[in-house]
Design goal:
The protein is of the alpha/beta class. The chain has helices at residues 5-14, 31-34, 56-64, 77-90, 105-108, 129-132, 140-149, 163-175, 202-209, and strands at residues 18-22, 46-50, 69-74, 95-100, 114-120, 150-160, 179-184, 215-220. The chain has one domain (27-71, 102-220): Rossmann fold. Helices cover 34% and strands 24% of the residues. Bound molecules: S-adenosylmethionine (SAM). S-adenosylmethionine (SAM) binds at residues 51-53, 74-76, 79, 101-103, 120-123, 201-204.
Length: 221
């Protein structure tokens, strides 16, 4: 069967491993109650992948770490479909997907409920810096959202191809009182090369294929 966008949207409504909130201005009230509908809101460490696209990190990490739970979040249902379908076909019970704006994560995740966050290749939003920096996933407002849901000592991993975004992120994390654990502007020529789970997302392969160095920041908030 050919899966175009519309059939993918229809599919994810039926998938048992997807919660759909869609694009809304303010977080829907019922979202806070949805936490209990996610099959694993128990004690196992919880890892989020923000802007998960096809969910490559969530799937690969869930395959490797059965003792942890993973939730991939993205607003684009047709991308998220790939991860959710792969998880269902593999019978992976420790990975789940949420179609929502990352802006609303505090409405879904209780305070201090998340152990780790991965942010692979977020949109750098550099076309109109004066207007768009607040949309960056490392802007102060987003960092505060993460701070609320992370447990004490929780870790955030950021990968990007984009130098301006990388430097902006180092600055906002530091200014916002975060702690940079390690960073490199050339991951695969650094001592951290083997430490980032060795997973390459669709976007990452595109950039490395063009010879662009991958930048990486590990931090806490
Ligand atoms: C450049 S793509 C990277 C996708 C994937 N992480 C990868 O590396 O292949 C950025 C993704 O973040 C998602 N995204 C960007 N801003 C978002 C937001 N505020 N809320 C939810 N998803 C967002 C987009 O829909 C897109 O899938």
């Amino acid at each position: 069967m050919i899966h175009n966008k519309l059939t993918k949207y229809a599919d994810i409504k039926q998938f048992t491993n997807v919660l759909e909130c869609g694009f809304v201005k303010s977080p829907p009230l019922e979202l806070s109650g949805s936490w209990a509908d996610i099959p694993f809101h128990g004690d196992a460490p919880l890892v989020l992948e923000l802007g998960c696209g096809r969910g490559e990190y969530s799937i690969a990490m869930a395959e490797r770490s059965a003792e942890k739970n993973f939730i991939g979040i993205d607003i684009k249902g047709a991308r998220l479909w790939f991860g959710a379908k792969a998880a269902l076909e593999e019978g992976l019970g420790n990975v789940f997907f949420v179609r929502m704006q990352i802006e609303h994560i505090n409405a879904l995740f209780p305070r201090a409920s998340v152990d780790e966050i991965w942010i692979p290749f977020p949109d750098p939003h550099t076309n109109h810096p004066s207007r768009d920096t607040k949309r960056r996933l490392t802007s102060p407002v987003f960092l505060n959202r993460y701070r609320e849901v992370l447990k004490a000592g929780g870790i955030v991993h950021l990968k990007t191809d984009h130098r301006v975004f990388y430097e902006y992120s180092l600055e906002t994390i530091t200014r916002g009182g975060g702690n940079i654990i390690s960073h490199t502007d050339d991951l695969y020529n650094s001592e951290r090369a083997g430490d980032t789970a060795g997973i390459k997302t669709a976007f990452e392969k595109r950039y490395t294929g063009r010879g662009i160095a991958i930048k990486y920041i590990e931090f806490s908030l």
